[in-house]
């Protein structure tokens, strides 16, 4: 079978690449074909699970602000972003009937908050330009000879094309079809691949999982998300914190800090703030360094002021007539209830046992003392030494990939193989959570598609 342009991978970048290529050909009046080869039963599988199914498909910040959220390859992404900006992407989807909405943090969603609507819109756009989408086509090998690319499926089916776009994604969420195939083909075609690691993933504190947690032998620090929670993990799981400070230390040295939301999940510490620090944390743990997170529940308030406030509240609790018959532990819980969400108290107490001091007295039993200063300190410096991280099974993106040094940023064409184009997560580009990664996929995909089509038209 033959197609003038083949796109391997029907995800965000692949669908956009196919549309852009076909649209360019149609506008030029060319009789040329574009085909997507997708291994899954339907395209856009990973788009379906982004944003917890709500699909935060873009972020409408301008380039100066947007680029600050790209963790690797910002200068490489710039030409593709200006070819298809986030606002242009929003307008494109709306032109095909998708109603959109922009929420806090400039995050763009479909108005329905159904990821399937984004996928359907992209697929319909491709069909409107004559793109052929072959599903359940698992590519086994890719080769190039005499300016023609040969693509062979696991079941023996073969395709030939003059321009090839590889948009296979990375390793994250393998259930969506991302298995790292593109990296093997990159090596076979002479490209180098930068070290790949999971990013935007849960960070697992020591003691958060049970002692028999499943630790991967193939990737240092990888703790399977399905591993059972410990008592501490059970106490914290489900707690969501808003507007807190979170900082990362590596080998005892503070390296980064953020302000935002933190979620405790069955995986570990997540949420926008946790995700933003996960890239550096994962890399450090993988390389054998010790990493820790410090949670500041009262960010923006000086430690001295917090200490004074805690002591004042403690005096109020102690002097309250209703506290006369209460034990110190119960009084402590009342105090903590004035300082944090109630659902956080069990986990906070388990993680900070020094806030209560227990002494055995001769012939008088046990005496418990509330350590008010220890509470104040823990509110500002709640330290979580990290045992590891959740791997690709639930990581949002892959850090690392095909070296961008070997790809022309203004066209997305390989510097090594003429007629070969790369786009999306398969490349060594990754960003923060908040719509940046999908927009980068759309932008690089669009530029790859337009460039492949123009190259075909010119020659």
CATH homologous superfamily label of the largest domain = FAD/NAD(P)-binding domain
The fold-level CATH name of the largest domain is FAD/NAD(P)-binding domain
Major beta sheet summary:
6 strands, antiparallel
Radius of gyration: 26 Å
Q: Can you tell me the residue ranges where pLDDT is under 50 for at least 5 consecutive residues? A: none
What is the number of independent domains? Answer: 2
Give the beta-strand count: 23
**Structural class from helices and strands?**
alpha+beta
Shape: elongated
Question: What is the level 1 CATH name of the largest domain?
Answer: Alpha Beta
- Helix amount: 25-40%
User: What is the count of helical runs?
Assistant: 14
- Distance, first to last CA: 21 Å
Strand content: 25-35%
Oligomer: single chain
Overall pLDDT: 95
The main sheet orders its strands as 13-20-17-14-15-16
Reported CATH architecture of the largest domain: 3-Layer(bba) Sandwich
Explained architecture:
By secondary structure, the chain is an alpha+beta fold. It folds into two domains: 5-198 and 398-457, FAD/NAD(P)-binding domain (3-Layer(bba) Sandwich); 201-394, no CATH class. It has 14 helices and 23 strands. The chain has helices spanning 12-27, 45-49, 63-66, 74-83, 86-95, 115-128, 181-188, 231-236, 271-286, 303-319, 328-337, 345-351, 372-380, 436-457; strands spanning 5-8, 34-37, 58-59, 70-72, 100-103, 107-110, 132-134, 139-145, 148-153, 158-161, 163-166, 193-199, 203-205, 240-250, 253-264, 269-270, 291-296, 356-361, 365-370, 382-389, 397-402, 420-422, 430-431. α1 runs parallel beside α6, α10 (303-319) crosses α11 and α10 crosses α13 (372-380). The longest helix has 22 residues, at 436-457. The chain is elongated, with a radius of gyration of 26 Å. The protein starts with a strand and ends with a helix. The model has no long low-confidence stretch (mean pLDDT 95).
């Amino acid at each position: 079978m033959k197609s003038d342009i083949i796109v391997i991978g029907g995800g965000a970048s692949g669908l956009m690449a196919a549309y852009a290529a076909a649209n360019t050909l149609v506008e030029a009046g060319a009789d040329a074909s574009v085909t997507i080869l997708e291994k899954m039963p339907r395209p856009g599988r990973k788009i379906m699970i982004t944003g917890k199914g709500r699909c935060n498909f873009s972020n409408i910040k301008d380039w100066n602000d947007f680029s600050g959220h790209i963790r690797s390859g910002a200068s490489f992404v710039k030409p593709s972003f200006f070819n298809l900006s986030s606002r242009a992407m929003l307008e494109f989807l709306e032109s095909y009937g998708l109603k959109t909405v922009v929420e806090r943090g400039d995050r763009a969603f479909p108005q329905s908050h159904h990821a399937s609507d984004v996928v359907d819109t992209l697929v319909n756009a491709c069909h409107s330009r004559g793109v052929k989408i072959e599903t359940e086509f698992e590519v086994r090998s890719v080769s190039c000879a005499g300016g023609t690319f040969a693509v062979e499926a696991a079941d023996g089916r073969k395709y030939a094309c003059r321009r090839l776009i590889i948009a296979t994604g990375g390793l994250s969420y393998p259930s969506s079809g991302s298995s790292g195939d593109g990296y093997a083909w990159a090596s076979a075609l002479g490209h180098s691949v930068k070290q790949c690691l999971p990013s935007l993933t849960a960070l697992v504190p020591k003691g958060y999982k049970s002692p028999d947690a499943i630790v991967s032998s193939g990737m240092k620090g990888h703790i399977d998300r399905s591993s059972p929670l410990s008592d501490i993990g059970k106490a914290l799981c489900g707690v969501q914190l808003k507007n807190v400070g979170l900082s990362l230390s590596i080998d005892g040295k503070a390296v980064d800090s953020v302000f935002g939301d933190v979620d405790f999940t069955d995986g570990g510490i997540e949420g926008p703030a946790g995700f933003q620090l996960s890239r550096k944390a994962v890399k450090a743990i993988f390389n054998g360094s010790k990493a820790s997170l410090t949670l500041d529940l009262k960010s923006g308030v000086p430690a001295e002021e917090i200490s004074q406030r805690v002591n004042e509240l403690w005096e109020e609790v102690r002097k309250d007539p209703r506290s006369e018959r209460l034990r110190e532990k119960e009084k402590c819980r009342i105090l903590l209830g004035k300082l944090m969400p109630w659902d956080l108290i069990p986990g906070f107490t388990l993680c900070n046992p020094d806030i209560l001091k227990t002494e055995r007295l001769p012939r008088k039993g046990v005496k418990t003392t509330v350590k008010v200063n220890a509470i104040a300190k823990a509110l500002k410096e709640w330290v979580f030494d990290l045992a590891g991280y959740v791997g690709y099974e639930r990581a949002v993106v892959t850090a690392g990939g095909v070296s961008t040094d070997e790809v022309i940023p203004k066209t997305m064409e390989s510097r090594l193989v003429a007629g070969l184009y790369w786009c999306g997560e398969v490349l060594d580009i990754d960003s923060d959570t908040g719509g940046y990664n999908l927009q980068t996929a759309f932008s690089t995909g669009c530029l790859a598609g337009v460039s492949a089509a123009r190259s075909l038209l010119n020659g």
